[in-house]
Amino acid sequence: RPATPYGVQQLLLRTGVETKGAHAVVVGRSNIVGRPMAALLLQDGPGGNATVTVCHSRTRGIDQHTRLADILIVAIGKPEFVTGDMVKPGAVVIDVGVNRVDDPSRKQGYRLVGDVKFQEAKQVASAITPVPGGVGPMTITMLLSNTVQAARQWAHP
């Protein structure tokens, strides 16, 4: 199972976000996050049965799509790409991006930001994941889950 998309799906399931019948917009079409995320949301079963729109860097009028999302999952790899006015009021926003931006005020000279302008989007969204500390720990958890599952299959073929 792809760790990051599976982690996002588990995050939605375990926080009680209903995906069935929801309009989910995935911003990003990578083979690692965007496409498998869309596939998981489309599948029949818990954490699925959503209507999914996939947008990418070449999507025209991307803000028109994002404003329709009940669940907005952003994995486009561009720092603070999604702004507050691109989020539907009450939407659940999952920020998968991790970007390093220069910040001379920080000891290390940079700070980490997501693909969503957190301070703006949190004013509009009903829930939002932070960066860092949101999706990343879920990815690690799902990597461990995959490792345990692989070990069990190896031990008991």
What CATH architecture would you give? 3-Layer(aba) Sandwich
Strand order of the largest sheet: 2-1-3-4-7
Number of strands: 7
**Mean of pLDDT:** 98
Distance between the first and last residues' Cα: 18 Å
CATH fold description: Rossmann fold
CATH first level: which class? Alpha Beta
Count of structural domains: 1
Tell me the Rg in angstroms: 16 Å
**Sheet/helix structural class:** alpha/beta
Low-confidence stretches: none
The CATH H-level superfamily is: NAD(P)-binding Rossmann-like Domain
- Put simply, the count of helices is 5
Indicate the proportion of strand residues.
Answer: 15-25%
Q: How much helicity do the residues have?
A: 25-40%
Major sheet, described briefly? Answer: 5 strands, parallel
The H/E string reads HEHEHEEEEHEH
- What would you call the shape? globular
